[in-house]
Write a structure and sequence with these properties.
Structural class: alpha+beta
Number of domains: 2
Shape: globular
Low-confidence stretches: none
Number of helices: 10
Radius of gyration: 24 Å
Largest sheet: 8 strands, mixed
């Protein structure tokens, strides 16, 4: 959509590399343009427009890797960058796990990933969106103090490799969030709401503002409870962090080299039999979709958990080579800067058999977790997190909002204790789907 030529500078770098004594190489160039608006207090704090462009080279010699990048696309700077990468590769220690880089594969283009409305956005148009979120909050309750913001991004990406990969993709992304804080004497009500996607129409600033304000008001009168063992009912926002933490721990080099809590889980049942988790980077119009991954491997749907059993790691070509399997198409490249990692794309947890109302009704006493981050230590799996928003539940009803309550333990113990999954859930970014879940018992630290 934007007339930026990345093909020519990438091809210039490739021509130089072809004349040098290296085993494998790739060249990536990206152009990105972003607009971001930050909210502070009762208005707009700042508006920033930024353009970033650059070209990066990875060169491999005798299993050694050299990386260099430049933010100049002048021919002399490109050649100097290529020669630096090759110099570093020749000096690098050999990596015995390196098997090569992927070759070309044909793939059907994933549609609806670039929105012209975002590409054409101006600062003046952008500022209206956070203002609309503030106005929506004020319609629910006046006098709040706010934090949050809005961002829109367009990225164009080009990749060529010595093995014949030659791809170019464009993508847009947009996100918005707001956190209202209201006061009644010494009492404080605060919450947070957000949304994101690839199209401007994927977010509704009025809904975000209204929902954030309504949730904040519900937090007035929060109380502490004593330390105990209770069931947890996780909202989709909270359950998303639990599932994403597991998939991150199943991704890439760290996972296959035994450096995460999930490294030894392949083939093991970790939770109830009806839990299924899929990863799919081919969903049209979804935030984590693309036709190819960061190494030019076609994206494809991958079943990660079936019947409660972990089936696979999420691989780039390097981690796949370590255990002699194929890449799953989950390489993530840090733009033109050269680093290639692995991670999940669009994560979908299959819905269960119960409505949220039925889950609450089945809970004699427990905690409804509205907002919390279930992100453990990625090596040990140990978890200690604060429930930022939640309610004490008794006989299926909200009794009062809770505060200063922490969840502790091992993340896999939480998975073992999942006993109910909701039919309904929330779609995030047009591709992720997370239901509400109940964890039948968790260790809570309060008073």
């Amino acid at each position: 959509m934007v007339g930026i030529d990345l093909y020519t500078p990438v091809e210039k770098a490739m021509r130089v590399l072809r004349t040098l004594d290296v085993d494998f190489y790739d060249v990536a160039a990206t152009y990105s343009r972003s607009i971001s608006i930050s909210i502070f207090g009762r208005g707009i704090r700042e508006a920033i427009s930024k353009v970033d462009i650059g070209l990066g080279v990875r060169a491999f010699k005798n299993k050694g890797l050299g990386v260099a990048y430049t933010q100049s696309l002048d021919e002399s700077d490109i050649e100097e960058t290529v020669r630096r990468a090759v110099k570093y590769a020749r000096a690098a220690q050999p990596d015995p796990y390196f098997k090569g880089i992927p070759g070309p594969s044909r793939a059907q283009r994933v549609p609806e990933l670039c929105d012209k409305e975002i590409v054409d956005l101006t600062i003046e148009e952008t500022i209206k969106i956070p203002r609309n979120m503030i106005d929506a909050c004020e319609c629910v309750r006046r006098g709040g103090m706010y934090r949050g913001g809005f961002s829109a991004n367009y990225t164009k990406y080009s990749l060529m490799t010595s093995t014949g990969v030659d791809i170019e993709e464009e993508k847009t992304a947009v996100s918005a969030s707001i956190q209202p804080v209201y006061r009644e004497g010494d009492d404080v009500g605060s919450s947070h709401e957000f949304d994101y996607g690839v199209r401007l129409s994927d977010i509704d600033p009025y809904w975000i503002g209204r929902r954030a304000a309504e949730k904040a008001i519900e937090q007035f009168g929060s109380k502490r409870i004593k330390s105990c063992m209770l069931p947890l009912i996780l909202s989709p926002e909270a359950s998303s962090t639990l599932f994403m933490s597991l998939l991150l721990a199943l991704s890439g080099e760290r996972a296959v080299k035994g450096r995460t809590f999930a490294s030894n889980l392949i083939g093991k049942r970790i939770t109830q039999e009806n839990l299924e988790v899929n990863d799919d980077g081919t969903i049209p119009g979804a935030i984590a979709s693309s036709t190819y991954d960061g190494e030019g491997v076609p994206r494809r749907p991958v079943k990660v958990i079936k019947d409660g059993i972990v089936l696979t790691f999420l691989h780039n070509s390097y981690s796949a080579g370590i255990i002699n399997v194929e890449s799953t198409g989950h390489a993530i490249r840090d733009g033109y800067r050269g680093h290639v990692d692995a991670g999940p794309s669009n994560v979908k947890v299959n819905p269960g058999d119960s409505t949220l109302e039925e889950i609450l009704h089945e809970t004699k006493r427990g905690i409804l977790v509205v907002n919390a981050s279930f992100s453990p230590n990625i090596v040990s799996g140990e978890l200690s997190t604060t429930i930022d928003e939640g309610f004490l539940i008794e006989r299926g009803e909200k009794v009062f909002p809770i505060k200063n309550l922490m969840v502790g333990g091992h993340i896999l113990d939480l998975y073992k204790n999942i006993d109910m999954i909701s039919k309904e859930g929330r779609i995030f970014g047009g591709g992720h789907f997370f239901p509400s879940i109940r964890i039948k018992e968790a260790r809570l630290s309060g008073e």
